[in-house]
Amino acid sequence: MESTHIKVVLVGFGSVSQHFCKIILLKQRPKKLFERIRVVGVCDSSGAIYDENGFSLQQLLNHKEKTGLVEFASTQNQEQIRSFKDAEEMVKSIPSYDVLVDASPVNLNDGNPGLQCARISIARGANVVFANKAPLVLDYKGLHDLAIEQKVEIAFSATVCGGLPVINVGQRDLVGADFVSIKGIFNSTTNYILSQMELGNSREHALAEAQKTGIAEADPHLDVAGIDTANKLVIIANSLLKIDTPIRLEQVVICGIEKISKQDLDSAKAEGYTIKLVASATMDKNMKKYSYTVAPERVEIDSFLGRASNTDMCICFETDIYETISMKTNETGVFPTSAAVLRDILNMKRFKLK
């Protein structure tokens, strides 16, 4: 059944959620379609607020920019706003909603608040879109099975390489394939740092620039140590590969870029190579088992991976029937990730958007 509006709850109101709202505002006038989306719930570290008729997104953005908080945001329907201490209390208490968007910070300890809010929402019959990787890294199978049981959808294209449709292509367009290997550069921050170090800039300066644009994780250690890349590899493996048991982050051999020096980069360049932080899922020769690694690798300068510079991200699917398919994106900010959140909502079956 097609509803009049799509009621969305945002868990986390950082850059991704804010740019999601900005995209809706940009698209409303030329596309009536986007007017159906109503953001009815928002939360950040200050608390959570709910308006069953939907917030004025511009006023919400203005308040967040001015105060850094969503709590007590001034909107058109102030008397109708309900406040809650946190996201979990809100998603348990409010009337039905259609989609929960988890854009909360990555928490690899227990996945919360995103994981618990996702479980509650699925149990209540709401679809869930993830921009936060942690819940899927920690409990992909549990969330997947619960969604099937409750007959709802979960989507997570925004968790892997921003707007690059890695999950979409792998699940939809490469259907029927066995993957011999999946290899790529999944983290724009580390790729930018290595590219800038090649040019003679310091690691610290490059990281600071990446943080300014918003492409770096809130905790840059996740980027530099290779953990963010490994998180993405886990999500890709569990959603695309034919494996009996979901892999865990602990099964990925991880080495970051902390020890890569300008001398290492110059030495590689002199021999026709460059150094990239590469994620790989590779099937052994007997086609029985995958190995998973994240590590700096020397790649030929004129290769597909070698030509990915600065904030580029890319992926290569080596398959049995489609041979090798490669994709690349250049993203200088968070807009494409927010657009991927919107893409996942628009692609959900229950809304029948045209």
TrEMBL record:
Molecular function GO labels: homoserine dehydrogenase activity
Annotated catalysed reactions: L-homoserine + NADP(+) = L-aspartate 4-semialdehyde + NADPH + H(+)
Species, as recorded: Aplanochytrium stocchinoi
Annotated transmembrane regions: none
Gene3D superfamilies in the record: Dihydrodipicolinate Reductase, domain 2, NAD(P)-binding Rossmann-like Domain
Active site, renumbered: K232 (proton donor)
Protein name per UniProt: Homoserine dehydrogenase
Chain sites annotated for binding NADPH: K133
GO BP, one annotated term: methionine biosynthetic process
Annotated InterPro entries: Glu/Leu/Phe/Val/Trp_DH_C (IPR006096), HDH_cat (IPR001342), HDH_CS (IPR019811), HDH_short (IPR022697), NAD(P)-bd_dom_sf (IPR036291)
EC number(s) reported in the record: 1.1.1.3
Coiled coil: none
Span of domain Glutamate/phenylalanine/leucine/valine/L-tryptophan dehydrogenase C-terminal: 7-142
Pathway: Amino-acid biosynthesis; L-methionine biosynthesis via de novo pathway; L-homoserine from L-aspartate: step 3/3; Amino-acid biosynthesis; L-threonine biosynthesis; L-threonine from L-aspartate: step 3/5
Binding annotation for L-homoserine: E217
Keywords tagged on the record: Amino-acid biosynthesis, Methionine biosynthesis, NADP, Oxidoreductase, Threonine biosynthesis
Residue ranges constituting the Homoserine dehydrogenase catalytic domain according to the UniProt record: 165-346
Family statement drawn from the similarity comment of this UniProt entry: Belongs to the homoserine dehydrogenase family.
Superkingdom field: Eukaryota
Organism ancestry: Eukaryota, Sar, Stramenopiles, Bigyra, Labyrinthulomycetes
